[in-house]
Amino acid sequence: xxxxxxxxxxxxxxxxxxxxxxxxxxxxxxxxxxxxxxxxxxxxxxxxxxxxxxxxxxxxxxxxxxxxxxxxxxxxxxxxxxxxxxxxxxxxxxxxxxxxxxxxxxxxxxxxxxxxxxxxxxxxxxxxxxxxxxxxxxxxxxxxxxxxxxxxxxxxxxxxxxxxxxxxxxxxxxxxxxxxxxxxxxxxxxxxxxxxxxxxxxxxxxxxxxxxxxxxxxxxxxxxxxxxxxxxxxxxxxxxxxxxxxxxxxxxxxxxxxxxxxxxxxxxxxxxxxxxxxxxxxxxxxxxxxxxxxxxxxxxxxxxxxxxxxxxxxxxxxxxxxxxxxxxxxxxxxxxxxxxxxxxxxxx
Length: 348
Hints:
12 helices; 11 strands
């Protein structure tokens, strides 16, 4: 097998190898047989637009678009693994829904959030936790909050429910989603990016920000650069767009779970001026944003990924990921909106 691979990669080796003493019988396709996986070229205008969009932006950008119905793929720097940040909440949600499909979890199962569940950064559910009894909820509500509000505490609660990072990684691997890493959870990921060792007290108040600010500048820059260069939660835009296309086609979850997840993504409250800012009336859009830490004007991860559906029912899965940039937020948003505008222009 290894020898065959070597010959394939370097045909010149064939001249030095003995002739094989076996025959390979291949079926002869009929004249009308269609290829199993047809190769459909992406619209040239769209490919050109993506190249222009990325070249004219000061930052590390990866873009990928998959036509759910047409089968073509367009990308610019789409194979590079870039920080996902809260985009990774999608894989947690899919892992939970996969467990629902298997009968191990129900969306109406009770789930209680207590102070011990708090993480850091964006966790609006913390305001609902009163006293020692905590906030009594359900798996479905907690997952809806994780997706539509990007609540970190809700997401980490679900992550523990399904078995931790290894369970999510197993879902990604079993479904062959490609180069998508899943990190160690919000606490450890953010501490590592900042150059800190996680401590439980960082979940309360602004203690994490205070500890981070007290670090030497060189320590913070080194940790930030290491994360951007090889993110623990890095994923290729091509892989994310491909996974979303498979979700839309119903290849990853049951019909009911697929419908639940897509409708929940469509009701997301985050990133209204990212990709969604260019979605015209009559089109549907379900998405998940992700935003990383800032350091001296740079941001490690400013993302939006989702499924865009035209009034005629044709859909596109897209991932726009800015891995590292010093440019202000309005410029990042304009880049994302330009991608949506390019898709709509080619749709006709």
